[in-house]
């Protein structure tokens, strides 16, 4: 079991952390939740049937850990809507060139700000589909949903993001044409 557990940790630790970081918007809390996820994995691995990939199984556990965290928080809805402090918590990409980094950081900031207008389910779908690059089928397995529900939630999420990104961009006077959100 130790080698299997170590293998899971090595393969997916970064992805699970990133998912939880986007969900809770706090580095320290995301680290705590990652530990909680791997405790749950350690306790439940014998029940893993292999009906989904290990990665989608881990994301399912991570999502449930995040939901449990929000349920325990007093006023969790308010915490979800708190502003993100980009000066202390940054999303980093190891390989892009400096110009790409600048553009990516601005786009990520806008998307991240607009994610606060999405519901928890919508945010989960966006993170799994676009930040973790899971397929619709994998996302459905991770969330315990049908593929149809994932597609519908994704469509609604993108509408919410597009609407609020257009508002932010127009407010900042960055562009006058409509913002395109696509995959």
UniProtKB/TrEMBL annotation:
Cross-referenced Pfam families: Sigma70_r2 (PF04542), Sigma70_r4_2 (PF08281)
Alphabetical list of PROSITE patterns matching this protein: SIGMA70_ECF (PS01063)
Taxonomic lineage from the root: Bacteria, Bacillati, Bacillota, Bacilli, Bacillales
Alphabetical list of PANTHER family matching this protein: RNA POLYMERASE ECF-TYPE SIGMA FACTO (PTHR43133), RNA POLYMERASE SIGMA FACTOR SIGV (PTHR43133:SF60)
Keyword Cell membrane: no
Organism domain of life: Bacteria
Protein name: RNA polymerase sigma factor
Keywords assigned by UniProt, alphabetized: DNA-binding, Sigma factor, Transcription, Transcription regulation
GO molecular function: DNA binding; sigma factor activity
Family of the protein in this entry: Belongs to the sigma-70 factor family. ECF subfamily.
GO-annotated biological processes: DNA-templated transcription initiation; response to stress
Domain RNA polymerase sigma-70 region: 8-74
Organism from which the protein derives: Neobacillus cucumis
Residue ranges constituting the RNA polymerase sigma factor 70 region 4 type domain according to the UniProt record: 112-159
């Amino acid at each position: 079991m130790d080698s299997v557990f170590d293998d899971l940790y090595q393969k997916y630790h970064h992805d699970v952390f990133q998912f939880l970081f986007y969900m809770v918007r706090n580095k320290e809390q995301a680290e705590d939740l990652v530990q909680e996820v791997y405790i749950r994995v350690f306790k439940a691995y014998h029940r893993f049937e292999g009906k989904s990939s290990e990665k989608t199984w881990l994301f399912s556990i991570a999502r449930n850990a995040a939901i449990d965290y929000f349920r325990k928080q007093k006023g969790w809805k308010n915490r979800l809507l708190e502003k993100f402090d980009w000066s202390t918590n940054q999303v980093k990409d190891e390989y892009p060139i400096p110009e790409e980094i600048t553009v990516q950081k601005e786009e990520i900031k806008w998307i991240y700000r607009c994610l606060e207008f999405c519901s928890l389910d919508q945010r989960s779908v966006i993170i799994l589909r676009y930040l973790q690059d899971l397929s619709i089928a994998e996302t459905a397995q991770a969330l315990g949903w049908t593929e149809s529900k994932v597609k519908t939630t994704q469509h609604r999420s993108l509408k919410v993001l597009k609407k609020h990104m257009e508002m932010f961009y127009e407010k900042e006077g960055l562009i006058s044409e409509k913002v395109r959100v696509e995959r």
